[in-house]
Amino acid sequence: MVKCVSSFLLFSLLSVQAMSAENHIDLHQPKDFVDITTVAPDVQVDMRYFSSHNFIGRPIKGYNAPVCLLTRPAANAVKQVADRL
Asked: What does the pLDDT read at residue 83?
C-alpha cells in the first residue's frame, strides 16, 4: 500500500512539473524579425494556433504567445497594405 501511494505521489509530482514546463512562455524573437503590431499597430492579430479555436481544437505546441513575428520587409509590406485600407 505504501509503495502504491509513493508511486502515485511521484507520478503526480512529475505530471505537475511536465505541465508547468509545457506552459512556459518563451518569447524569444529571432534576429531580424519584428512583432507586426510594433510596425503596424492598427493590424488586428488573431493567432488561431495559439488558442483552441483552430482545426484541431486545442493550442498547437510551439505557439507560445499570440504574437505575429515577421521579417522587417514583410511587416513593412503588411503596413503598406493596411495603410491603404
From this structure: 93
Regions of the chain with pLDDT less than 70:
1-28
pTM over 0.90: no
User: How far apart are alpha carbons 58 and 31 in whole angstroms?
Assistant: 29
Q: How far is CA 41 from the centre of its chain?
A: 19
Q: What are phi and psi for residue 56, nearest 5 degrees?
A: -105, -5
**SS3 category, 67:** coil
Domain membership of residue 60 (yes or no) is yes
In a domain, 65, yes or no: yes
DSSP-derived 3-state class of residue 71? strand
Rounded CA gap, 32 and 29, in Å? 8
